Amino acid sequence: xxxxxxxxxxxxxxxxxxxxxxxxxxxxxxxxxxxxxxxxxxxxxxxxxxxxxxxxxxxxxxxxxxxxxxxxxxxxxxxxxxxxxxxxxxxxxxxxxxxxxxxxxxxxxxxxxxxxxxxxxxxxxxxxxxxxxxxxxxxxxxxxxxxxxxxxxxxxxxxxxxxxxxxxxxxxxxxxxxxxxxxxxxxxxxxxxxxxxxxxxxxxxxxxxxxxxxxxxxxxxxxxxxxxxxxxxxxxxxxxxxxxxxxxxxxxxxxxxxxxxxxxxxxxxxxxxx
DNA sequence: CACGATGTTCAAAA
DNA sequence: CTTTTGAACATCGT
Length: 274
Fold this sequence. Notes:
Elements: H1 4-14, E1 22-27, E2 33-34, H2 37-43, E3 49-55, E4 58-63, E5 67-72, E6 77-83, E7 92-98, E8 102-108, E9 114-119, H3 120-125, H4 127-130, H5 143-151, H6 157-162, H7 172-181, H8 195-214, E10 255-259, E11 262-266
Parallel strand pairs: 2-9
Antiparallel strand pairs: 1-7, 3-4, 4-5, 5-9, 6-8, 7-8, 10-11
Helix pairs in contact: 1-8, 5-8, 7-8
This protein binds a DNA duplex through loops.
């Protein structure tokens, strides 16, 4: 379940590959490669990695000659930087091989992850990228910007936190954690939130996400960083995945419901329905 | 063995 | 246009 913090962790790790050149591609799942395996073979081989950045949950690997290798991990995708001959990783469906015996393994148990080979100019105009909303941790994103962005919206709080065109990069884990931290029921209607609710929501969102990034992500499910190490943000989870367990604050049993078709857990006492 | 759960995005409906 | 619902993806556990 790689979301903003997990993707950021991997992007940081991928900086180790700057300066490496793609030599070959192995795959048993060409469907993961868009537009096609042959396009990758034609355009990726020989390209050098110049930089790596994150946009929402997308990993953008910037290459020589203005190409971009774009990767989305979806549910279960993982990337591993390995030395050639390192012991096998599970569910590896694509392997990018570099010079100096390095390789980047794309592991994906659910096979929902995707990689795209794009010119930089096409990346910038790609509809999926263009429609993405505000980066929650952008230093220029102020509490007033946040309020302005949310005040005009209707609907359930959690649905809006997950809306990638509004805020880019929050997924199921941090939507639950942010709702808990803000003391708001995930089904609260946005139009019922006060100014101070929104201010609180903004500050808790930033605090939770910043913590998760510095903790190198939440290792729930199978998440690992690009060196195969787990993150530690899950130790600080108060809501996500804790359905049926006692609230860490008040001891009340956490409820499990569906919100916006997603599994959701929350404390009925600590989180007010507005 | 059939079905539901899982997280995310896209398509379609309201 | 905005918001909600449904489908699809592949696999695993019940």
